[in-house]
Amino acid sequence: MTKWEYATVPLLVHATKQILDNWGEDGWELVQVVPGPNPDNLVAYLKRAKA
User: Which of 10, 27, 34, 46 has its Cβ near the most Cβ atoms within 10 Å?
Assistant: First the structure.
């Protein structure tokens, strides 16, 4: 059975692609993006298989 680790990452609207690309290069998979504490921010939920 696969075991997962999770991370939450604040996203800046003007740099979303760059932030997600950087996490993706480290093996993280995007699960969901939700609104952050203010309208200019988003929060990404990511997961990857544990080693």
Answer: 46
